[in-house]
Amino acid sequence: MFKVAMGLMSVGALFAATPAIAHGMEIGNDLERCSATARGPAVLVDVRGFSAATGTVRVQSYPATKAAWLNKGEWLNRIDMPVKAAGGEMRFCVPVPQPGKYGIAVRHDRDGNGKTDISRDGGGFSNNPSISIFNLGKPGVEKAAFYAGPGVTKITINLKYM
């Protein structure tokens, strides 16, 4: 009986030590985490094409699975901040839990009201897939998925407005 109890405790300790991928972490935009000396894993995201220097921008990372992609509460990390670059670009550092396949979604909420207005707000995704009103601006995960390596992976997302 003692051996069985010790074996179960060992299995429990093994599972406790295995890192789980946490969902829903609101983080700051720590660009140092993506610096030349950073180890990662992280994604350095250049977001281009802001139509106005107003409102807020949201950058969210997701596991690149159909079950998680763009589903409420399934995002890994979220950065929200004021827009500072009309017509220009902003840079974000998004850490990821481990090397693997991910997708990044960006929303420019031009009036900063926290609601998506398809006729005014802009958005974009990793790999810059085309979006339309027919898919409500939501591409499938296979179009947005990319591989983030053990270091810092660089991507560019071009915002689109309807």
TL;DR?
The protein is mainly beta and 162 residues long.
Separate helix tally: 2
Q: Classify the fold: give the CATH topology.
A: Immunoglobulin-like
- The computed structural class is mainly beta
Q: What does the oligomeric state look like here? A: single chain
| Percent range for β-strand residues | 25-35%
Taken from the alpha-carbon principal axes, the silhouette is globular
Blueprint of the fold:
Elements: H1 2-17, E1 25-26, E2 42-48, E3 56-63, E4 77-82, E5 89-95, E6 100-109, E7 122-125, H2 141-144, E8 146-148, E9 152-158, E10 160-161
Parallel strand pairs: 1-4, 2-9
Antiparallel strand pairs: 2-5, 3-4, 3-6, 6-7, 6-8, 7-10
What does this protein look like?
The termini are far apart. With about 160 residues, this protein is mainly β. It is globular. Helices cover about 10% and strands about 35% of the residues. The longest helix is centred in the N-terminal third of the chain and has 16 residues, at about 1-15. Strands 1, 3, 4, 6, 7, 8 and 10 form a 7-stranded mixed sheet that branches. A 3-stranded mixed sheet has the order 5-2-9, with no helix packed on it. The protein has a single domain (about 25-160), classed as Sandwich (Immunoglobulin-like), CATH 2.60.40. The chain has helices at about 1-15, 140-145, and strands spanning about 25, 40-50, 55-65, 75-80, 90-95, 100-110, 120-125, 145-150, 150-160, 160. The model is unreliable at about 1-20 (pLDDT under 50). The chain is built from 2 helices and 10 strands. It comes from Sphingobium chlorophenolicum L-1. InterPro entries: DUF2141 (IPR018673). Keywords: Signal. This is DUF2141 domain-containing protein. It holds the Pfam family DUF2141.
